[in-house]
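Researcher: I'd like a structural prediction for the single chain below. Treat it as a standalone chain; there are no partners to consider.
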Amino acid sequence: MDYIKNLYQSLSERKRPEDIAEVIKNYMSDHYSVRERIILEKAAQHALVRRHIPYTSMPEDFRKIVGAEKQLLKASELFDVSLYTNFDYCDVGEIQSALEEIEMLVKKEIGSNNFIRDRLNKNERKKSNIQLSKRQYNKRWRLLKRIEEKQKKLQKELHKLEFEKIAKHGLAHHLSYSEFAQDADSACFIAYYTARCNLRSVFTNTSQEHPFDEICEMLLTRCRLNCPITTNWWAISHVYISDFVTSHLTEEQKGLLLGRWTCILEEISNFLHDLWLKNNINRQTMIVKKGNDSSTWNHAAGAWNKARDQWMHLIYALGLEIILENICIGKVLRLMAGDIAAWHLESKGTLDPDTYVWNELPLPWEVLQGRVVCTKDDIIVQCLKVNLDPEKSGWIAPKSHSTVQFKTTPELVHGVEISSPFLASILKRNKFFSGKG
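Model: Treating it as a single chain, here is the predicted structure.
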């Protein structure tokens, strides 16, 4: 079952779909029909292991978060305390516990970080039996303050990474191994579809290609026809929701998912609210300008739209669409680069119709927080004003998607496809390319 472990590990990575297809082919092809093997081979033949030089310029992981290891190890040295084995320097809760223990040694309270007001003077240190000189006390006090600041920054970065993953593949990275490994066919579909979802965005003036390709369709068909009883529809619903998938969930499972996605929307709404206040975003055009934290905004917006789409699916699956008559949360538009906006204007003569709908509706996070009211009828009115179908565009119903043909994973420089991984790596080294989108 090592291949299942490899597939499971890929859920938190950004492996190319071709490489996931190769893993599936190596271990599952004996169970596949000739037709299924031919379809899978369309992707597997482009796997890195089949290249003369197995190399890609695209990072195969999500960005790494730098934890508080440096600061806490220094604190351990200065305060002569030991951190327990396997301490997670990226775990905000563990850092909090360590801070509470260490700050007691200098009678400092967490959050009391005013250098003038919150430090102990000589008499107070003597009374508290703190046998440190002023210089040594200040050194430790400043370090603890920096650790608290690092903890806050780390919390924000973890939120950003979480939203980035949700925007790409939903709840795939939250699946436990036991849930994932229950059924091999389900695991293969989840891993391949997740890899497709994790592909970088392409520079285009149209919508991004839908991740559900012909190989996804073949793998899901196996789940549907070959072993519908053993198929783990609960695990599949964490990454892919459709009417057919939800029809195989119990009412309790649908309710659990709805509650989970609602909590995620609430969390993102608070994050978006803070971002909106800190960034002077041009709501009329949603074109990025100097000073806008576009990467963070777009990750949060993508997570909101993904969570909202899943939430909509479950609302309809549970027959609760009457809720939308009272509260209907809208999409959050991403910030657009000026060159893409200009391209869109030149080719279509206008901004994306979604922009006009977004401008006329209340801010969606304020609707969710109960500050303003927005109903299904309100959204329909604004969509019709710009000749936009409110259902097909995904404003009042989950979007429906068709199956697309498989395409090889491109090497990208700022979203523009090039033919050479080697050239892409050179451009990346010379700051032309990030490859993180």
